[in-house]
Amino acid sequence: MELARLPKSLIDNMAQPPFQQPYYGGQPAYQQGPGNPMMPPTDPNDLGMENLQIVNQQPAARKRKKDRHAYHVVEAQGSSQAFNGIPQGGIPPSTYLNADPSSMPSPGGQFLNSPITPHMSQFPAPVNAPFNPANPTTSTEFAARNGSGDVFSANVQTSAQGRVDPDQIPSVPRSRDAIAQYYLKNVYPTFEHHLPPTATVPFVAYDQGNASPKFARLTMNNIPSTADALHSTGLPLGLLLQPLAPLQPGELEIPVLDFGETGPPRCHRCRAYINPFMVFRSGGNKFVCNMCNYANDVPAEYFCATTPQGARVDREQRPELMRGTVEFLVPKEYWSKEPVGLRWIFLIDVGQEALNKGFLEAFCEGILAALYGGDDSTEEDGSPKRTIPKGSKVGFVTFDKDIHFYNMNPALEQAQMLIMPDIEDPFVPLSDGLFVDPYEAKSNITSLLSQLPQIFSQIKNPEPALLPTINAALAALEKTGGKIVCSLSALPTWGPGRLFLRDDGKQHGGEQDKKLFTTEHPGWRKAADKMVATGVGIDLFLAAPGGGYLDIATIGKQMQTSMTNIQTNFYRSCCCCYWWRDILLPQLRLSAG
């Protein structure tokens, strides 16, 4: 369109070029002059009106403010300009999509080189206008611009299918091994460290007044302040106590304290025992309980002066004031029954599997080594060196389909066997001679254990009756309590409490495995409850020389849930009796010691 051919009346009413249009809230227009970058070009071919000699001779009438309008040019379809960034017909979208905003066409872009700011728009910007970036970038690109990609982003590599690479996942066993490696070189101080080592990590504890986690461990390292906070965690709050936990080499033995008939000092209100956290006041005449804050009078026989800091002068000579774990000898008023020496009874499987694979021979050799140790050294008085406490006694029972008791009286030339065929209602056929001192009856014990493999070599019953044998042993230990050490080499499928093959080896996983790990057999649960009532513990040595099924969930786990002192040792198939002996020996020494 050529402007020179337009009528004069139309030229007078034409709107100004886009770069000269007034806008709302804009800055004052630049004055045209040399050197002004905002001045339009002076080429006659451009849109300059003065070069075409089209001049309005009449002065323009001054109009009122309300007559001033903003004129808008509405382009027809197919225009070269975009509407709100959307390309019109005939223009490929790639011209505008993901393009640099500075290179996109804008009104007056052929004349203006400065970017357009929001106040230069002809429409007022909305108050809460959403921000839509023209070139959206990924989080990785954005972090790379600021140089903080490694801080806020995890570089976890993925495979071509979009799965996480397992090698990039943090390893729980590795972190657990790191803790184990730390405690191989460092001692755990019980008072200085807040977080105890995990239950699976072996460590050497240094008792500073708090009990070692080996003896007492909370299920939570931090106790919630309210019941609602505890309920929101969904975690159980409890205390696990193991007073007879084995010690690591290098740890101090637990001191045994005897306060006579009066017993150790205790709080008169809550009955808490004296411990390192009780505070002494009034020059040592009173001690304040750390459990209930009650001020107790110090017994006259326990009085000692205190330092200006409030500590007893004899504090370092009192283990109960320095150690978190001690043992008190119980006075008579706390006895439930007359204390006697510990009783051990060995239940020995003499079935077919135990004979064929050498398990019986190895178990007998392990018992002899555990009792006598193979050491010819003697005590100070010339007696043989004892591997078990003085006053302890041992008894022996063998079983297959029947139960065999042995009279080990030292007055006899050799042990006597008594067979109890009534396994439906087992009882103890001996009143004297079942439990003997292992050193007084050493000849009878050595002779019996060495001859057992030959005695049962021609019998070889394949089905042992385990539960009746355990019930008979409980009857023998009912009055005194004690320890059962039992061996088993085949599934007990004979007599009351017989077990069946529940795992055929064909189905694994899911609900089937869940059932195999649990059992509700009433006979075994009843035996476990009786162990708790009579104070009897049991160590099970289970071996499947033929790789057979033993139903350990019923034999071992069911008793373990009754909180008895139970240790289950399971050994896989092996045909070498010396291998059984070498494996059983250290475990039997722990059981008998």
TrEMBL record:
Where are its TM segments located? none
- GO cellular component assignments: COPII vesicle coat; endoplasmic reticulum exit site
GO terms (molecular function) for this protein are:
SNARE binding; zinc ion binding
All residue ranges annotated as the Zinc finger Sec23/Sec24-type domain in the record: 264-302
Function, as annotated, reads:
Component of the coat protein complex II (COPII) which promotes the formation of transport vesicles from the endoplasmic reticulum (ER). The coat has two main functions, the physical deformation of the endoplasmic reticulum membrane into vesicles and the selection of cargo molecules.
Hey, which family's this protein in? Belongs to the SEC23/SEC24 family. SEC24 subfamily.
Its name, as the record gives it, is: Zinc finger Sec23/Sec24-type domain-containing protein
Q: What is the lineage of its organism?
A: Eukaryota, Fungi, Dikarya, Ascomycota, Pezizomycotina
